[in-house]
Amino acid sequence: MGRPSMTQTAHKKLAQEIRSVIKSNGGKITMDAMECMPLMKSVVYEAIRIEPPVASQYAKAKRDFVVKFHDVAFRIKEGEILFGFQPFATKDPRIFHRPK
């Protein structure tokens, strides 16, 4: 049998972490218990990064400013409407080693 995949290994570690913390907390799932689960927290953040619950948002600029992104910059003027699409940011290979 070959080496287990990283997914299987991570799943096993995650299950162990959750079971151990919940058991030591008298079987109760509380916010304090969840704070003792760093792997669980990382998994949740990664899931939200990969599939953001809100994919886009917009706003009106309250003042002039500059948005810098890697090697470009955009001048935004007061009153202009801005639109943000989260997957562009959360799946940027220049920031994330394995973006997808």
From TrEMBL:
- Pfam families from the entry? p450
Return one Gene Ontology term, BP aspect: oxylipin biosynthetic process
Q: What is this protein called?
A: Allene oxide synthase
Keywords, ordered alphabetically: Fatty acid biosynthesis, Fatty acid metabolism, Iron, Lipid biosynthesis, Lipid metabolism, Lyase, Metal-binding, Oxylipin biosynthesis
What the entry lists under PANTHER family is as follows: ALLENE OXIDE SYNTHASE, CHLOROPLASTIC, CYTOCHROME P450 26
Q: Could you confirm whether the keyword Signal appears in this record?
A: no
- Keyword check for Lyase, yes or no: yes
SUPFAM superfamilies tied to this protein = Cytochrome P450
Give the originating organism.
Abeliophyllum distichum
Which family, according to the similarity comment? Belongs to the cytochrome P450 family.
Instruction: Enumerate the GO terms in the molecular function aspect.
Output: lyase activity; metal ion binding
Q: Which InterPro entries match?
A: Cyt_P450 (IPR001128), Cyt_P450_sf (IPR036396)
